[in-house]
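Ticket #4471: structure output looks truncated?

Reporter: J.K.
Steps to reproduce: submitted the chain below (240 residues) through the standard prediction queue, then opened the result file.
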Amino acid sequence: MGNEIRELLINFWRRSFFIEPLLIFSFILSFILGLFYHYKNKERLLFTAYFFSGAILFLPSPIISICKILTRRQLMIYEEVANTFFELIEFLAFYFFFKKCLQNKYEKCFKVALYMLMTVSGIFFIRLAFPNYKDEDMRTHSLFINVIEFFFLFIMCLAYFRKLFTDAPTKNLFKRPSFLIVTSLFFYTILMIPFFLIANDVFLNEVAIYHILFACHYILLMFLLFSISKAFLCKIPITT
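Returned output as attached by the reporter:
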């Protein structure tokens, strides 16, 4: 029994070149850091919730695969619901982070982005309840929500850089927690938007390449988590 479980886990994680368990470890480590270094700060607490939701997103999949308690479609629905909830929490954490960083300068625009993402996600959740919702359409629409979220986060990064470089920085940028977070997020979003746009076609035609690209996605996400965790270790506000 033990050998079967080990073999199943190896086969499950081999698809992402064993980067997924490292990503799970990164989320858990970041969550633990968040518990100890949140200083009751709203932005830090939201990122802590983001870390927790990431762990919840990635941990159950191998467990469910081992137990085989769900059908393929049920598993897919679970994964897409978890993934969309994760994206909403992720966006919410960065929404309040950028709102504080930019001192409410673009608050109306950011609220429109938040409402649009919540509306699209709500429509997606409703569609999941229909039995005639095809798996391919489900995957396509889920990836589309990823693109929307990442596009809005990318715009927020540009707004941050515009404000930052409007005046000459008076402080070493690499000692500013917000700069580390936004720079990592900027590269994460700009590199992943093209992937999510073509991901479904790649999955249908070249599954091996699809898993390679998703492994790259996990690596970029780990860099982002590292940057946020490093910012958490600073005693000054992460929005500085």
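Triage note (M.O.): checked the attachment and the full token line is present. The two ends are 52 Å apart (CA to CA).
Status: closed, working as intended.
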